[in-house]
Structures are given as C-alpha cells and as structure tokens.
Amino acid sequence: MTREENFTHIGKPLLRKEDRRLLTGHGRFLDDVVLPGALHVCFVRAPHAHARIAAIDTSAAVDMSGVVGVFTGRDLAEWTTKLRLAPPIEGLQPVEMTTLPVDRVRFYGDPVACVVAEDRYAAEDAAEVVSVEYVALDCVTDTDAALADGAPLVDETLPSNLVSQQSFSSGNPAARRADAHAVVEARFNLHRHTHVPLETRGCAADWDAGRAHLTMHIGTQTPHPLRSQLASRLRLAENQVTVISPDVGGGFGQKIALYREELTVAALSRHLERPVHWREDRLENLTAASHARECHCRTRTAVDPEGRILGLELELMEDFGAYCFYPANYMARVVAMILTGPYRISDYAFEVKVALTNKCGNGPMRAPMAVTSWIMDGTIEAIARQLGLDPLDVRRINALTQDDLPYTMATGEVLEDITPLETLEAAASKIDVAAFRKRQAEARKQGRFLGLGFCSVVESTTYGSAFYKAAGIPGSGHEAAWVRIEPSGAVNASVGLMGTGQGYETPLAQAVAEGLGVPPDLVNVQMGHTDIAPYGMGSRGGRGATAGGGTLYLCARKAQERVLTIAACMLNLNEPTNLRLHDGQVERMLDGRWQCTGVALADVAKRAYLEPTSLPEGISPGLDVSLTYDPPPMTYSNATHACEVEVEIATGRVSIDRYVVTEDCGTVLNPVVVRGQQQGAVAMGLSGALFEQVIYDESGQNLTATLADYLVATACELPDFEIFPMNTPNRRTPAGIKGMSEGGVMGSIGSVALAVSDALAPFGVVVEQLPISPQSLRTALRGKRPETGEKERME
Amino acid sequence: MKETDYKVTLSLIVNGETRNVRVLPQRLLSDVLREDLGLTGTHVGCEHGVCGACTVLVDGAPARSCLTFAVQMEGHEITTVESVARDGELSPLQQALHEEHGLQCGFCTPGIVMTFEAYLKENPTPSTTEIRDVLSGNLCRCTGYQNIVAAILKAAATLREKGVE
Amino acid sequence: MKPAPFSYHRPGSLSEALGLLSDLGADAKPLAGGQSLGPMLNMRLARPAHIVDLNDLLELDYVRRTGDGLEIGGMTRHHRLASAPEVRRTLPLLAEAASTIGHYAIRQRGTLGGSIVHADPAAQLPLVAVVLEAEAVIRSRAGERVAVVADFLQSIMTVDLADGELVTALRFPVPPTGTGWGFELFSRRRGDFAIASAAALIELAPSGAIAALRIAIGGAGAVPVRLDEIEHSAVGEFPDGMWCATVARCIAEAANPEEDPQIPVPFRRELLQTLAERALTAAHSRAAVA
User: A19-26+478-629, what's its fold?
Assistant: First the structure.
C-alpha cells in the first residue's frame, strides 16, 4: 500500500453529521422503534447464584389481565438450538448452553422465564407472580473457590471449572531467571467491571408469518454475525432474517453477542406471530448483561543491574463468570500475546487460565486487554523500585527504538510503524518530570502526597483474518463495502460496521470522499441494515477506521476509476490517465496543473445509468462498486499516558491533577472524532480504576445492581485531558490508518495505578488491586507513617 | 378488577400544546412522553433517578421524568428536548455541543440539554466548577465530559452576547 | 422497573390531604418530591395501595421568619433551601448542606419534609436538623403536635409518625449572631449519599473560648448522632488546631458505626475523625467573638 501524505478530506476536523438529530431528540434508538401491536416482555430472573429449578408455576401469571403467555426454558429448547462453542484450541473446553436454563441456574440474574404481555407494566406485574421453586446449590464466587478440590461445578458437563488453560514459552525465561542479577515479582489484580452503555440492551422482533421472515431491530455492533447466529439458532436460513440496528446508545463490547434474552424474544415473535419488544432495565443490565475484566496476574522478571529485562513470565487467571458467550480464552489470550508491547523482550513465557464462577458471564469490554499495559509498566516500576533505578530510565533502556523495527515479539506478533520511545519522551517532556519531582518533594514536606505515573501502550487495533486463523478462532477480520453513485450523482456507501456512538457517519464519509473525489457531505454511509450493508464483521476492537474506513476508501478509489473510465470516453480520450475526480468534478492534468474539464460526476452518473449505449466497450451500466479487504494480521497504535494525582492521606481520596496522552494512531480520518474517542477511553479507564466495581457477596448475590451502587464517574471526578497527537502512518494499510479507541483504557488504568503507588511510595504502599477506592487505600495506609528523605525509592 | 378500570384521563401541557392521554396512575411521565405522546427524545437510562437521561423541564425546572408520574403533571408545563430547537435552528447550547463535539452516542444528550437550558437561565456566568457540579447529575459514558463542559461554557458566552444585543 | 399499581390522590389543600391520609391509613403513602420514593416504587421496594400527592400543597412551600426562628414548609425544595437569601443568611449550615444533596435536577424536586421523613441515615437534612435543634411540625386530622427532630428520627428510615400524620414544616431556631458553622461530608462521587458527615456550630465567648458547641455526625449509626458529652466538655476551651484534632479523635472513638462489608468500620471511623476536625475548624474560623 502506498503512503499518501496529501489528503483532501481525510484528516479534516469535520463536525459530525449525526449530531443534529441526536441534539434535537430525533435520534432513533431501539426503544423508539414502534411496531404496531407489539407485545412486551419481562424476564423472571433467578435470585440465587446456583440452584436447581425444581418447578415453575406460571398459572397465576398467565391469568392476569394483559398477559399473553409465560414461557420457560423448556419452550425455548423446542424452538431454538443450543449455542455450542468448541473452537479447536488446545486447552479450551467445549461448552454448550441452552437458550434459557432448563433445570439449573448458574448466577444471580439468570433468566428462567419470560412473561409476554400487552405492555411492560402488565408484564412486570405478572412476572412477580411467576412462582419458581429453587433448590439452592453451593456456589463458587471467585477463582480460588472455583478451582479448589471438590468445588461445585458451574457447568456440569465439564470436568472442572478450569474452562481454559494455555501456556507458551519463547526463548528460555527460566534460564534467564537463573542467571539474572535480580528477579522481580509483581502482582496485578483487576476487578470485575461492566460496560454500562447509557442505553441498555433491547430488541424488537417482527416475524412475518406470510413471508416466513424475521426482522430483528436491535442495537448491535455486529449486524451480520448476529444475523448468522439468529438464523442458525432459530433453524432459519440466513435469507430469512434481517437485522436492523437503529442508533445505538453505546456498546463498548456489550452489544456483540447474541444474548439469550434476544434469541428468546425472536423465538417468541415467531411462535406468537406478533411483534415482540424487550427493553432491558438497568437492574438487569448491571446484573445480567455482561461483565468483564476480572483477573489476577503475576509477573516474574529477570533483570540485569541496569534494569534491562532478560526474561519475563506471566501468570494470568481470569474469572469468566457462569456462561461463555465467547471462547473463554478470547480476552486473556490477547493480554498475554501483546504484553511485552513497547519493550524489547525476547525470552517470554505465559500461563493463562480461565475459570468459571457463579457470576454473570464475561465479554469483551472496550479494551478486553485493558490490564496489559498496567501489568507491563507496573512490572517496569517494580524493577525500578527493587533496583533503586529511575523508572523512566528503566523504560528507556527496554523501549523499542526505530532501529528495532519491524520487531517480531516473542509471541510472533510483528510491530512496525510504532513509536513507543517517542511517545514516552514526548509525554515526559510535556509533564516536565524534573519540575514535578521538585513539586512532589515540596508537597511531601507539607504532608501532601503527589504522584506521577507513566504508562506506555501498544494497542492491538485491527485483527485481520490471518490473526483469527493463527489464533484458532472462528471468524474473519476482513471487511466489505460498496459505493454507489446514484443517477443524480448523489453518493451512497455502505460497510459492515455498525457504530454505537463513535460518530462513524462523518469519518467514513471522509474516507469515501477521499477515495472517490467528492465533498464528504455528498456521501451518505448506510450502516446497520443487513439487507443493505454487505456482509461485514462489524465493530469490535479498534477496527472501524482501518477495516471499515480502509475498505470504503479502497472501494471509493475503485469507483473513481470507473467514473474516470466513463469520463475519458465522454471527453473523447482513449485512456483515463491524467484524469481525476476532484470535488465532484472531472479534472485533467494539462500543462502541469489540474484543470476543469466541464464534466461533473452527475454527468458521468447520468451517462452510466441512463445512456448505457454510449458507454465505452466493456463497461457495464450503472456506477455500483463493491470490494472486500482483509487488513494485515494485526495493526498497532501506541501511546504514552502520564497521570498526576494527589492522594489525601486522611481519607484515601485520589484526585487527578493532570492527565497527558501522547498517542500515535497513524493517519486519522477525523481528528475531532479521534480526540473524542481518546477522551472517552481514558475516562472509562479512570472511572473503572477508581470507582466502578461489580461486587458479589459470598452467597453470589450481586450487591451492585443499581447506578447508585455501581459507580460510574461523573463530571466532578474526571479531569481535562491533554492529548498530543503523533501520527506515523502504517505502511501496510490503506491511507496509513492504524485504528484506535481502546488504548486510552489500557493507559489510564496503568497510569493512575502507578501514579497512586508513586504518591504512596513514602509509605511503602504499592497498588496491586484495583479499584483504588478510598477504603482500600486507607486499609493499606493504616498504621503507616511516611519515610522521609530520598530513601523511599531505594527500599 | 381490570386494570383499565383504573385508567385516568389527563390533559397535559407539553411543549406548549395541550395533549390528552388515558393512562394508569403508576405510569411514569417518561413512558407517557415517549409511548403515549411519541416524544421519544426523552431517553430512559436507569429509572432510578441516577443517570439523568430522562431529564425534562417541569414549569421550567429540570426534573427526572422517570421519578415523576404523568398523573402528577396536570396543570404543569412540561418541556422536552423536541422543543429546544426553534424553526430548525439549534439553540446556542445545542450548537455549542455540536461544535465542541460534546456528544457521541447521544443517548444522554437530551437530558444534558434540558438540564443546562434551565441552568444557564439561572446562572448565565457559570464557572467550570459550577458546570461540572451541575453536570454531575447526568452520566455520560462516551465523552469523558471534557467537551460537554467546553460546550456549556461556550453556550453561556453566546447567550450572554445575545442577551446584550 | 415499573411501579406496581396504585390509586392516586391529589388533594388541593392540607386539610384535604390530612383527611385522605386519615381515611386511607397505612395503605397510603404521601408523595412529596419523589426523589427517594420514586426509585423505591419503580423497583417495587415500596408498594402502597394509595399515593397521596402533596405537590399541590403550595401552602407547605415557604420560608418564614417566626420570632427567633425560621419555619420552613415541608414541601420546600432543596434548591430553595440552598439558594433562598433568608436561609443562606440565617441558616447557612442548612443552605450549604442542601446544596450538596444529590444533583441539580434532584434538588429541584426533593423536599425538606420528604427528606426528614425518609430518614436515610446518610442524608444531609436529618443531620443538620439535629444539630440545629429543629422541631418538626406534625399535623393530622386530629390536630397538630411538635416533635424535636432528634427524637423524631428513630432508626434507619423509621420515624415517629403515625398513620394519617404529615410533617408540614420544620422550625429551626436561628443560632445567635456570630455562631460559626461547619459542614463536611465524604462520598465516593459528587452527589452520592455520604459515607460519613459532620456538622458543627460554635459560639464563642468574648475571651475567644467556646461558649457553646453543637456537633453531630452522620454515617455513625442508624440516625445522626449528637455528641452531648463532647459538647458539654468543650465549653470554656480554646478551639485551636490541637483542640479540634483532639476532640475529633474523641468523636471518632465514641462513634459506633454499623458493620458494612463495603465500608469497613475503621475506615468510617477515620472519616468521621477527619470530617469532625474539618467541621470544627471551619466552625471556629467562621465564629465571631460575641
């Protein structure tokens, strides 16, 4: 792929097309979709973490006014197939689940019955009187309990709760450890999160009995894969199902899988031959949609006296919850794969285990590999602490430089066109570390404790098909697009992505505009409708720009070629060389400059559609171009985050004084949208690191079922972010796009944790467990007094 | 004992228009606005008063429509996000949110617009701290709030200029 | 999350409201601002057969000077408590506490009477009502009675209110001119219910010694705790930094927070100490020598 430096539309800070409708209340979200005669459902959910379903008595509910029916797992088992996940991955147990539990519930909130009624009020009234007789069973609510001998099995078809285990070794880390100057151990425990899109899940299923066709309105990141799942689980052909995603109020990974509730609603619409609507309430969303991130990690690092990493070993244990909507190795695998990221580490080994527990099932949440950068830079900090070195120097001595690139990581991943040392130095310079250290020393004398944390990120963004193949994961990383110039010259385009608030409509229009040579406001990008969009893999990770934007860009270039071929004929030229489409006008290079030909795109479109007999030989009528594109096995962006905090020792409160990001995400389609993504990602990471936590008690009750208990940071808890873009194009992708949007989570979790540890260094307190709550800090600080002087880093 | 027996007929003033509905007393204002009156700009995010997405104005003051029963609203003036842009022109606040990229998925946006349409009337010269304090009643999961704060500052300045003219 | 069915009543006057509450008895729940009752209804944690809406009782929305006190109607909204010049001037502690309740939109609806009757142990208004020695005016069809708020609050979300009774107003004695005040709370996020809180009032003698101290803490038990012994022993003391710190330590030691798996007792005790010290320091700094 060639590098193109001078873009006309790519990289311009255009304001978003979707804003007007969203600002005026005219957005169209799932709950705004009104299907005449639609029924509404309410799920009856288990109040136990683990129980046998002895009996379900629906008679009282069925008799209530407005109730159409009450359905259970047995009904759904007739109408739908099981989900079976059994990719050929060594160490991964195959799992199966029914659509609704039939005889056993596995977590607090597991759906056991579904009430269908005229409206949600009636459905909730009836759900209260569905009587379920449970026999409570022992449960496991953490990984230690799950893997103990004789632990109750979360999934009785498995030999143990260890659902996945993989290990890997490259080089000889054990030998490095034996020879090392020192071995440094460090621990990183990340707690359970959940996504909290402002719009909860929901769907409206509309079965057309006459056509035998299901139309599923559902806010989803992945319309086509969801359609494939729906069709297969309902025993329908893929051409019997249409998925339509309206505006989506946030996804963050929670709106990828086909969940059991959604499949139930679809099956009920077909069974009842009525439209059926479900809107999840917030209690359900917090307890039973999808959780994420909970894992326990440990590193052992062999180092030389200067802090050079000779060998690195990672142990990671993920608490996956009760059900697998994704292969259980899926998230943890990426952490282990990209751990070494910005650093030169050739001897590397990992052991990754995933355990099932009686909690809500896990899924990917914006940066499924969020813990990675905390682990790596936290390991660097541990090295500096143990050896009495400056942690920035330890980063520098290990950082990949331009001379190292392309660099093949120990896991075989290839890094190129990244700038880890450059973003680190830029962040250090923006912060002015020397000045900070002076301020920090002064403050300490006054009993105030400031801290500074750096965290460098190498973010895996776009997963190509070759990655999926190598990982043994079913699926693909390619993407598909079409660009259609209509007879009037208006441009429609489509791609298999589906936005959930990122603002795709504008940057993707810029990609099309760039490739085609028209103004972006002429381009309408249609997404989310499986009968309109080509079969694509949807929006996951940071693939939108590279896979989606890249495919559209290439497709638009192909469309421009077609336009110019016809234009050449119209201009009586033999070849379209020296022609270009610019701003919707065909221009010709004459005398060393582009000159107007008087032929506009609309003229070409008219010719293509309405005067096909005048087309050049071999050119078929119309201007409708499609294209698929498979990105490289993986693309990477990189960044360094720097966070300044103050910890109030008396209360344990952490306040963020300053936040700096230097990020290199290659060619940027639209810097406004990219900056918004960076800010949002950092905010989500900080909110998670400092406030959010899904809490289960020992009996498996979820104690954080409301937004008063699951704490998402408000405007008062988050700082302004200073973001400095550094744009090194990727040489292998269209237009040099790299993708982004998850790295902010990775960097912020790490930088804030390390900043707090830096602040508390005089107390000898190191943050090993998130979230960093006031109570957890007070527990760690209780009875400790700060050491004075410069000794604190030496220990 | 059919539920319909309990339905009450209400006459509501919404965005300056009188609208009649027949609803159960327990029906939330948010549901009546959205489902009975088709004003789907008011969004429902939590139904326990925390997220702020459903905020509307009741007699000019912001209120959670999920903590309000429609039956309570007879005789009160309800204002929703649909009425904020006049003759197709965005309000200074809406325009500033657009220009400062103060929204992403847009689900929380109507609640923020309504809260600050009211607040900027009460306090035309808010500080950043005051804005963040008021904004803390509206959760946004996408933006990190920074651009929303910038937009509100900008809107306040625009409104002050307009007031001077 | 939709409320269970109920019958709705919208009295147009206090006497009509009291009549309804009397007739409906335990089946009725008065609805004031609805900012606490609303979520409970939506989650079906509360399911009264009858809702008696008090929002038309404009006669209960007032701030009135009465001799040496301020009487504030039960339907007065938090926003008005926080912003009314009369409250800010005479009861700045109350205004400050009200300004920290929930969020802007919540404060437009939430009411003084509702908050006192809801009696959340973490709430601001019960705490300041206790330290300000407020009285609740309680009306029923049978007549009127007055209860000291400190006695009225019995336990977590439990108050001394019979069926048919309504808190129509709170009477706050206005502290003597020159009284300094301090109000401190600690919550994880802005607007959350406090994990701990403290409110203090200090009157100084001409010598600069304490003439009277009032201090109460929240989050230390089922109801706000007024610290009588500490108050008595403070008289005559000079409230310098050392004294504030010592007293705060005594307060924390005396406090008996309830066990909560998420909020360890030692943590809450430490917070109480810090907040009490800050409240005392603030009260002293604002106090003027008589």
Answer: Aldehyde Oxidoreductase; domain 4 (3.30.365)
Chain B residues inside the 8 Å CB shell of C34:
67-69
* Domain at C7-52: CATH architecture: 2-Layer Sandwich (3.30)
pLDDT at B165: 59
Asked if A496 and A480 count as a contact pair (C-beta separation under 8 A), the reply is yes
**Residue recorded with tokens 């002015």:** A432
**Which pLDDT value is given to residue A790?**
47
Q: Do domains A19-26+478-629 and A291-466+632-793 have the same CATH topology?
A: yes
Mean pLDDT for chain A? 96
Which CATH architecture describes the domain B92-164? Orthogonal Bundle (1.10)
Closest chain A CA to residue C267 = A775
Which CATH topology does A291-466+632-793 take?
A: Aldehyde Oxidoreductase; domain 4 (3.30.365)
Question: Where in chain C are all domains bearing CATH 3.30.43.10?
Answer: 7-52
Say what the pLDDT of residue B164 is.
66
ipTM passes above 0.95: yes
Q: Mark out chain C residues that contact chain A at CB-CB < 8 A.
A: 1-2, 4-5, 39, 43-44, 186, 188-193, 261-264, 266-267, 270-271, 274
Q: Is the pLDDT of residue C290 over 80?
A: no
Residue A625 CA to residue A512 CA, distance in Å, equals: 12
Residues of A in contact with C263 (CB under 8 A): 775
3-state secondary structure B12-58: EEECCEEEEEEECCCCEHHHHHHHHCCCCCCCCCCCCCCCCCCEEEE
pTM exceeds 0.95 for this model: yes
Q: List all residues 6 or more positions away from B55 whose beta carbon is below 8 Å from its beta carbon.
A: B62, B63, B64, B65, B110, B111, B112, B114, B115, B137, B138, C105
> The domain C181-286: what is its CATH number?
3.30.390.50
Mean of per-residue pLDDT scores for chain C: 96
Residue C104's Cβ-count burial label (10 Å; 0-12, 13-18, 19+) is: buried
CB pairs under 8 A between A and C: 59
**Structure confidence at residue C127 (pLDDT):** 98
